[in-house]
Write a structure and sequence with these properties.
The chain is of the alpha+beta class. Helix content is 27%, strand content 34%. The protein binds zinc ion.
Length: 82
Amino acid sequence: MTAVPAWEPHRPRSPRPIRSIELSCCSAYEWCSEGGLYFVLRRAGDGYEETGRGIYARAREVWDELTEEHARRHRLAKSKDL
Ligand SMILES: [Zn+2]
């Protein structure tokens, strides 16, 4: 189990647009890449927050942890509505 790093406000760091690759269950999280690095994006108020920015393998561990936690909450709620 990987500890999820702190969320921080998302700021694009490259002149190229970020690439959204995958949406998690309920669109809770977005798997993105920018400039060869990967990270997880989530909506926060009017903007976005990101976490886990890094190489694919490391960022993907954070993604897996977050999406598994999301799935656990579904199982606890025994419902598709969170
Ligand atoms: Zn869901």
